[in-house]
Amino acid sequence: MMQLSPLVSIVIPAYNEAASLRQTISEVAQLLLPHCRLEILLVDDGSTDSTTLVAHQLIQEFDCLIYIRLSRNFGKEAALTAGLHRAKGDAVIMLDADGQHPPEVLLTFIRLWREGYETVYGVQEQRDETGIVKIAKKIYYGLMLRFASINIPANAGDFRLLDRKAVDSLNLITENNRYMKGLYAWVGYRSMAVPFTARKRHSGHSRFSFLKLFKLGLSGLTGFSVIPLKLVSITGLLVSIFAFCLGIEILIEHFVSQKPVPGWPTLAVGMMFFAGIELLALGIIGEYVGNIFEEVKRRPLYLIAEEISQN
Ligand code: UDP
Ligand code: MG
After folding, report:
1. How far is the CA of 201 from the centre of ligand 2 (A)?
2. Which one of 181, 207, 216 would you pick to mutate in the ligand 1 pocket, going by the greatest count of ligand atoms within 8 A of its CB?
3. Non-local CB neighbours of 268 within 8 Å, separated by 6+ positions
């Protein structure tokens, strides 16, 4: 019996990338079609440029292309999830639409997958980041490892190949907080890193500002660990012990040393200190309450407005 070559799905999330799509998709198709059966899922994350128009043209040219348009901009993580739900491949590869992920690396991904690795991820080399960002990332990944027991490899992102087993496992996860890097690590499986150097964007600029990255990081930490809540309780306990000792000291000064204790500075400092701690504690609890609120609503992660392909 002749064995069919494996089906590989490529998931490409795109938000206003009309200028890059043609190049990205034709590069991938040219490179991979001789090696495997191919399915390219272009997930349009509510673009407002001419992405739809370009996609409709590309559909006529590539019979392996499937175009999925989300009803609005749901964010990259939701777009990837939509692609993972739809992909039928024995392996699924996620690739940015802007051309930053070099397609040649895909051949290495597929080779390692055929050797038995269930996850093959790209590790970006030579990132032009400032020292502060590097240190912040180190601390963050250290915290994730310590607090959440999730080992997220540094400089690895969504550029990766997942075996069908890993995709099915990810698809079992229904939570709304989709910190993908954490989820990849959480599902586990045998994995292998492949270094790559990111290319320049074909056009446009990155959509991930520092604020967006900070929010993503926070959702990762609170989505995978309740340690920040425990730290709040511990801080509360330590502060109470401190306040108790201070009270004893004041009593001793008053009754034993008979020294007059100045009232208002002690009060002012104490009040400010406690107010600060209380607000911090409330903020951290608020993060979790917010997460619970998002989860209990059970809203769908994305909505599909249109799905087209040649057949
Ligand atoms: N993207 C998306 N939805 C968004 C933001 C980005 O689908 O809300 C896509 C974007 O089109 C690109 C990929 O995610 O294909 C990576 O985005 P970007 O290049 O802005 O991020 P960076 O390269 O800085 O990580
Ligand atoms: Mg990019």
Report:
1. 6
2. 207
3. none
